[in-house]
Design goal:
This protein has 173 residues and is an alpha+beta fold. A seven-stranded mixed β-sheet has the order 1-2-3-4-5-7-6, with helices on both faces. It is globular, with a radius of gyration of 15 Å. It has helices spanning 11-17, 22-29, 40-48, 99-115, 129-138; strands at residues 3-6, 56-63, 66-74, 82-90, 119-125, 141-151, 154-164. Helices cover 29% and strands 34% of the residues. The chain has five helices and seven strands; from the N terminus they run E-H-H-H-E-E-E-H-E-H-E-E. The protein starts with a strand and ends in a 9-residue tail after the last strand.
C-alpha cells in the first residue's frame, strides 16, 4: 500500500541517490535542478525554499520499506483552480509495481479533493514513453501545448497533459 506525506528535509538524500543516469535525471527534472549529477543539497535548495509558499506542495510517497517516490504540485501562474505536477520520480526499486500510478492518483486526489482544483496539469517529454503511457492510463490527455527544451545537447519536446476533476477515474484509490 502506498501513501503520501509532505516532503521532509532528509528526503533529498534518498531522492538524489535514485538519480544514477544522466538522461533519466533530465527526464524528470527538466534541467531545473542544474547539472547532472544532482546533490541532496541542490534538491533541498530547490524544494525547501518554497515549502512555506502556499502555492507549492512537495510530497514523498512511501510504503512499508520507506520513501519510494517524490513529486511536487504547484499552482501555475495565478490560476487558483489548477495545480501542476513536477519532479515526478520513483526509486528504481519501486518501478514496475504500479507505484507510479498510485502515487499520481494520490497527488490528484489531494489536488481535487483537498485543494479544490478543477484541473491538474503535467509535462512529459516525448522521449519518455513509459511516463507518457502511465499518465495516459490514469486519464491525462494531451491539451495541445508543447515546449522545446535544450537538454543533453539535443532539443527535447515536452507535451503538456491535463486531467479535469470531472474526468478523474481514480476517485477511489
Amino acid at each position: 500500500m502506498l501513501n503520501i506525506r509532505p516532503y521532509r528535509r532528509n528526503d533529498s538524500k534518498k531522492i538524489a541517490n535514485w538519480c544514477k543516469e544522466k538522461i533519466a535525471f533530465y527526464k524528470w527534472s527538466e534541467g531545473r535542478l542544474g547539472e547532472f549529477p544532482v546533490s541532496p543539497d541542490r534538491i533541498e535548495q530547490a524544494v525547501s525554499g518554497r515549502i512555506d509558499n502556499e502555492r507549492y506542495f512537495p510530497f514523498t510517497a512511501f510504503d512499508e520499506t520507506g520513501v519510494v517516490g517524490f513529486f511536487t504540485l504547484r499552482q501555475p501562474y495565478d490560476k487558483v483552480d489548477e495545480l501542476s505536477f513536477g519532479y515526478v520520480i520513483l526509486s528504481p526499486h519501486a518501478r514496475g509495481k504500479g507505484y507510479g500510478k498510485q502515487m499520481l492518483k494520490l497527488g490528484i486526489k489531494f489536488a481535487f479533493e483537498l485543494y479544490g482544483a478543477s484541473k491538474v496539469l503535467l509535462e512529459v517529454f516525448e522521449n519518455n514513453q513509459n511516463a507518457y503511457y502511465c499518465y495516459k492510463s490514469i486519464g491525462f490527455k494531451e491539451n495541445g501545448n508543447t515546449t522545446i527544451y535544450n537538454l543533453c545537447g539535443e532539443k527535447w519536446k515536452s507535451i503538456e497533459m491535463e486531467i479535469e476533476s470531472s474526468c478523474f477515474p481514480g476517485r477511489k484509490i
